[in-house]
Amino acid sequence: MFFFILFGIYTFQFKWSSAAKSYCRPKYGAVPKNFSIHGLWPNDMSGAFIWNCDPKNQFNERKVSTLVSDMQAFWPSITCPSSNSRQFWSHEWSKHGTCSGLIQFDYFDRTLKLKNRANILKALGNAGIKPGSSYSLDDMKNAVEVEIGFSPIIMCSPQLNGLLKEVYVCVDSSASTFIACPSTAASSNCLSTVKFPPYPN
Length: 201
Known about the structure:
Helix content is 27%, strand content 21%. The protein has six helices and seven strands. Strands 1, 2, 4, 5 and 6 form a five-stranded antiparallel beta sheet that branches. Strand 5 and strand 6 form a beta hairpin. The radius of gyration is 16 Å and the shape is globular.
């Protein structure tokens, strides 16, 4: 219960790979052309991210062995050089998972289950918002809200001329339910019109 008192919510971050500074397929092959998981990050009561809570609690792939195939598909590292994603998962666990109060299996399992409950690409498509064009920021937020029940935070990449980078949604402290983001959460850095780039080949 200590960690549940320490922080207020999680921020779940869906990543759109086209806004990465570099893109390399994982060593194990292609991944679905969809939003992938960046991470599930605890926030303290002021809305600030907290991290690196237990440096001795290192990532152990054996503890999540039954989840690895789903992690490869939905939580890949797409940065260069190409990798098997293990270092990325280890980073997310060490920096963020250790602050969750969850054991490793539960942290990764609940994150994957949240991903399965929110198909961001489908939600945008249902509103006529598809990769390869530009759209109103408000229209994109409204489309995601229809899917999850709450307005998201849309983030863009300043280094890449404001391309859509990530979609943040807020999650309760049990890491199981989407909730409205509090006023202290991060705010969008996008302009009123967002470029939604096509997925890299």
